[in-house]
Amino acid sequence: MRVTWITDDDAPAMVDYGTASGQYPFSATGTTADYSYLMYHSGNIHDAVVGPLKPSTTYYYRCSSDPSREFSFRTPPSGLPFTFVIAGDLGQTEWTNSTLQHIAAADYDMLLLPGDLSYADLDQPRWDSYGRLVEPLASARPWMVTEGNHEVEKIPLLERHPFKAYNARWRMPYDAGASPSGSNLYYSFDAAGGAVHVIMLGSYTDYDAGTAQHTWLQGDLAGVDRGKTPFVVALVHAPWYNSNKAHQGEGDGMRDAMEALLYGARVDAVFAGHVHAYERFARVYGDKEDQCGPVYVTIGDGGNREGLAEKYIEPQPKTSVFREASFGHGRLQVVNVTHALWTWHRNDDDEPVVADQTWITSLAPNPACKK
């Protein structure tokens, strides 16, 4: 597990940890960095990888040997069942607070975020306030993220390097595992002891054939043994299928470049953000229903400050099964090697309400979908 934290003052990049509160027999030392953006200068950004760790175990830890603050996290299980929370376009509004409270109200093993985290939009202190907002959840479970358009933060002549804050603050395991990507903007990892392979794609870095991301994705998919890994899911930011009037066509170029790769590998589901609403499609390939294609879900309704995208194209396409412009979050419960239960929870005042639910079956054993 990688722990990342920020201090205003100089402090050791050290995490002390153990399985009992107040007792830290183990420690790990990492690295410290910082960054400047226009007139802003970040605090000291520390990160350290702790482990080896036991699965399904609560660890108590403190950062930089600070005795005043103890955190705890639970490691994911080493097999099934396994529960992912998926929430995109979070931001830091009252709706965000509601979403985070609803997520925390029910247990889960890992959170996946398909881009648009802080909505700092060049105002760097908003990255700090976002960190404080999500800390209660992000310090207790693994949060795996990929970038959205609001992470780019590039200013011609003044800030020429995109993703400066995102890459400095949200370091993902792109250089680890069996398929290192070499870029923090796209990567993959295994969960549930290898029963689920998760691919985090980058909508805002090159993706056409011959690019580094495209070549990496080919190799990553080729390395998945579906006999041992019954479920493969992918996350992008800009949706490849979308019947909302917002952001029409913005994911088409990436879909043209990569859809055949995911289809050929029998990826089970693709989750996207960007559009501030919820929509679930049937299994689709080439803009048509295809029982060997992925289920496509747009879940960019975490609570951003830009509001909801309430206008849909009419009539509703046959491939679009359910759509609603409400804030909320989703849960993917991989129950066993053949079935996963997808549930979308709408934010109502005091509690999340189940508004859409479906079973997703693994394509791996489907004889009609053998390569």
From TrEMBL:
Residues 293-356 form the Purple acid phosphatase C-terminal domain. It catalyses: a phosphate monoester + H2O = an alcohol + phosphate. Its EC number is 3.1.3.2. One of its GO terms (molecular function) is metal ion binding. The keyword Hydrolase applies. Residues 1-75 form the Purple acid phosphatase N-terminal domain. Residues 83-278 form the Calcineurin-like phosphoesterase domain. Keywords: Glycoprotein, Hydrolase, Signal. Pfam families: Metallophos, Metallophos_C, Pur_ac_phosph_N. InterPro entries: Calcineurin-like_PHP, Metallo-depent_PP-like, MPP_PAP, PAPs-like, PAPs_C, PAPs_N, Purple_acid_Pase-like_N. Belongs to the metallophosphoesterase superfamily. Purple acid phosphatase family. This is Purple acid phosphatase. It comes from Aegilops tauschii subsp. strangulata.
